[in-house]
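Support request, priority: normal
Reporter: lab tech (M.K.)
Component: structure prediction queue

Hi team, I submitted a job for TLCD1 protein from Tyrannus savana yesterday, and the status page still shows it as pending. I've pasted the exact input below so you can check whether something in the sequence is tripping the parser. The sequence length should be 244 residues. Please let me know if I need to resubmit or if it's stuck on your end.
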Amino acid sequence: SAALVGGSVAIFGALRRLALALPRPAAVRSRPGRVWRWRNLLVSFAHSVLAGLWALFSLWHSPELLSDIQDGYSVSGHLLVCFSSGYFIHDTLDIIFNHQSRSSWEYLVHHAMAISAFVSLIITGRFLVAAMLLLLVEVSNIFLTTRMLMKMSNVPSLALYEANKYINLVMYFAFRLAPQAYLTWYFLRYVEVQGQGAFLTANLLLLDAMILMYFSRLLRSDFFPSLRKGSAGRDVDGEKFLID
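Reply from support: The job had stalled in the queue. We restarted it manually and it finished. Here are the results:
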């Protein structure tokens, strides 16, 4: 498992170097502070596509796993958790080594939670199905990251942005809020509040609070812009927000 996680870190390191070689929109090239963020988002997009579709296919192919969230096991699920652990480790190092910790602290908190939880799953072999359900969020992140890339590149097609805006909202409900709500209910009702169960439940509840906060930001930004506060004139080129 350690080799699989390390291999995943190396894969995302290679993707980061590939992203450096890709052409960048004029709006990104003209603002040096956006270069790191653009590259980082491209790597994040790649993880979302791979991990999101992987989780979706694995659960569709083996629906019986959903009947045993605590002890269900599949090789595909184990590989997926190792793969995503590698991404979170790589992204954490990318943020720290590029001196983005202060502006991207929310990501560091999120990644620390994900890495610690996933490592515990890999070691014990329990709750892998719960991790697979949580990684369905990456399907939603495909459209969320697309939204941020379009904003950074000043995409000229308002219709394209508007279409993605509504698709993003639907996906947010279907692949982020719904699985999170179900797992929260399941853990509070069926999982023992001790040891690993207590640790994962605490992580899940903290993630609930973060997701609701991000959802409120998304609604204010895309659907109720008049309610946004303190954003006028703010330069966020070098910052990495989960919702921006």
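The chain has one domain: 1-21+32-221. Residues 231-236 have pLDDT under 50 and may be disordered. Let us know if anything else looks off. Ticket resolved.
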